[in-house]
Amino acid sequence: MNAVVALANETARSGYGVLVFCSSRQGCELDARLIGRVLPQANELHPAIVEKRLELLGDLRSLSTELDPTLAETIPAGVAFHHAGMTTEERDLISSAYDHGVLKAVVATCSLAAGINLPARRVILHNARMGRDLIGPSMLRQMRGRAGRKGKDEIGETYLCCRSADLEDVIELMNADLPCVSSGLTTDKHRIQRALLEVISIRLVNSRESINDYIQKTLLNLSTTSDTIQDHVESSLQNLLKMGFIQCDNPGSYIATQLGKAIVASSLEPEDGAFVYRELQRALQAFVMDGEMHILYTFTPVHEFSLTINWQVFRSEMEALDDSGLRVMMFLGLKPFVVNRMAQGGTLKESTPEEKETARIYRRFYFALQLRDLCNEMPVHVVARKYDTPRGTVQTLEQTCQGFAAGMIKFCEQIGWGAMAAILDHFLDRLRAGAKADLLALTKVTFIKSRTARVFYDNGFKTVALLANADPKELVPILMQAQPTKLRLKSKDEEKYEEKLLIKAQIITDSANRLWQVDMQQELDEE
C-alpha cells in the first residue's frame, strides 16, 4: 500500500496524471482517501485549481444523487474514484475533470479497465486480482494500455504492486501470451440457436444448403471441425423446431413462426423468449390493471442481473403492498412465508430448472419494487439507500429495464397483442422519465428531469406551452429551488452561477417552444 501511495504521489506532484487499478470498489475508495491525504491541499495550490475543484464538487452536488462523502474528502486534493457503483453522470464528471487536469489521480476497479478512456503518465496496479481471481493477460494488457497516449504524453509507465505470495503468479502472468481469438458461437450452444433463428427470421437463409453456406462464413467454421459444426447446427435446428420458433415450409425449407420473429425483434435468447411467452400468455388471462406492479414486473429482465436481494427489505416492502400488489404476488406464485423464511436467514434453492425459474420470479419482483419507487419520483440515491445497493447498480437496473421493456413492446406487437403493447408503451414513458403521468410532457424538455419537472409543476408551469412562453429570467429562481444542495454552497461567485442557470433557462424555453410548435402542428394536421 505504501508503494502505491508513494508512486501516485510522485507522479501527481510532478503535474502528471496517474491511474490506479484496484480489485474492489471498497479498495478504490480506500486508496483514493490515502492518496488524497499525501497530495497538496488547498492552501498549497494555485487558486484557479482550487476553484475548478470546488466547481466539480458543486456539479456533483447538483446531480439528483447526493454527493458521496469520500469524493467530498478527496476531490479538493485532486483525487477521485471511478467504479460501477457510481451513476453514469458522476463517472462522466470525474472522467472529464481528470481529462482536463482538474484531477490528478483516479482510482478505478479492474473490471472497468476496458471501458475507461483515461490516459495517464503512470498506471499503478494495486494487486493483480479482480475480486479473488487473478486477472488474465488480456485484462493486464488493457490496463497497461492506459499508460501513455500519443498526443497526450511523451512516455508512459506501468507498475504492478502485489503481495509476495502472488509474485510467482504475477511473473507468469506478465510473460503469458494473449489468448487466441475464438468464436462466440463455440462457447454456448444457445448462441448458435440464436444466430440461426435470426438469419431464418430475416430470410437470409431458408434451406439447409443456405444455412451451411452461412456457417462456412463464420469464425466458428475456421476454428472447429466440420463434423462438430454439423452436429451443432442439426441439434440447434431440431431445438428451434421443437420450441416452435421455426417450422418447415417445404421439405428442407425453414421459415420463422410469429413467436420466432417476436423473439428476434425483442433481442431475447430463445429460452428466455419461451419463458416470456409463457408468462405473457398467462398474464393476458388475468392481468392486474388496478396497480403498477404487474406492468413493472413485466419490464424486469429475465436474464441474470448482478443484484442481491435484501430479504429484510423485501419482507418490509411486501408487508406494505396494497391489495393490487398482493394479488400480483399471488398470481406470480410468490409465497409470503418464503419471503419471511428468507428474511430470517433461509436459503432459496436453485438446484433444479423449476427452482431456478421460481428464484428468477422472486428476483424480478424485487426489481419491480425498485422500479415502482423510481417511477414515483423517488431519487436514485434514496432508492439505493432503501434497498441497500449502490447507486450505480440502481441506475444500471433502470437503464436495463428500459431496454428490456422496449423489447417486450416489440415482442407483443410482433405476436399480435396490440392492447398489451399499448399498455406497456405508456408505462415505458414513465420509466424513462422517472416520473408520474402528470409530468411526462414536461420531462421531454431539455434539462428537465423528474425532480426539476415537479418543481416547475408546483410553481405553476404545468404545461410545455407555459414554459415555451415564459421569460427565462422567471425560471432561474425555480431552477435554484430544484437544486437545494447547490444553494447551500458558500460560493464567492454566485453571480456566475446564476448566469449559468440563465443560460440553462434559455435552453429550456427554446426546447419547450420547439416541442410546443410540434404539438400545435400535429393538432392542425388532425383537423
Automatic annotation (TrEMBL):
Q: Where is the Helicase C-terminal domain positioned along the sequence?
A: 1-215
InterPro entries xrefs: DUF7898, Hel308_SKI2-like, Helicase_C-like, HTH_61, P-loop_NTPase, POLQ-like_helical, WH_DNA-bd_sf
Catalyzed reaction equations:
ATP + H2O = ADP + phosphate + H(+)
Name the Pfam families for this protein: DUF7898, Helicase_C, HTH_61, POLQ_helical
Spell out where the chain crosses the membrane: none
The molecular function terms of the Gene Ontology recorded here are:
3'-5' DNA helicase activity; ATP binding; ATP hydrolysis activity; nucleotidyltransferase activity
The UniProt keyword set, sorted, is:
ATP-binding, Helicase, Hydrolase, Nucleotide-binding, Nucleotidyltransferase, Transferase
Name of this protein: Putative DNA polymerase theta subunit
For the protein in the UniProt heading, the enzyme class is: transferase
UniProt-listed Enzyme Commission number(s) = 2.7.7.7
Q: PANTHER family in the record, alphabetically?
A: DNA POLYMERASE THETA, PUTATIVE (AFU_ORTHOLOGUE AFUA_1G05260)-RELATED, DNA-DIRECTED DNA POLYMERASE
